[in-house]
Structure formats: structure tokens, C-alpha cells
Design goal:
Helices cover 46% and strands 0% of the residues. It is flat.
Length: 74
Amino acid sequence: MNDENIGITSAFDDNEIQRVIGIIQDYCERKKEQTVPFMERVSDKIAPDYRQHVPAEMYIALVLERLINKFYRT
């Protein structure tokens, strides 16, 4: 656990976080062809108006980062 995460209440304990991360990583590895396009933020080069149509972007790397940083509260 990072020092900056001390005192943060998460929906998951540290073991659950690691388990969920492992499940996501295993799935992405098994279904690489389907998940690679969703791993990183959509670039403006690929879709210049993406953020105009998608108010809350979501991609796999962001979900993993948020799990690690205990972003999810419920």
C-alpha cells in the first residue's frame, strides 16, 4: 500500500484489489485481440471528437490505476 493511500476507504481490501487486478490482467491476456483497443485512452489522432461524445471516458488501464489508488468507494 502506498503512503498516500493510508486512511482511504475503498470498496475493496488489498487482497480483493489484487484479485480483481489479476482477473482483469488474465482476461486481457487471454482475449488480447479483443482487449488491446480498450487498454489505453482513445487518442485525438484516432478519434478527434471522442470526448465530445463520451463524457466519462473509460479504458482498462484507467480501471487498473483506479483500483490501485483505491478510487472505487462502493
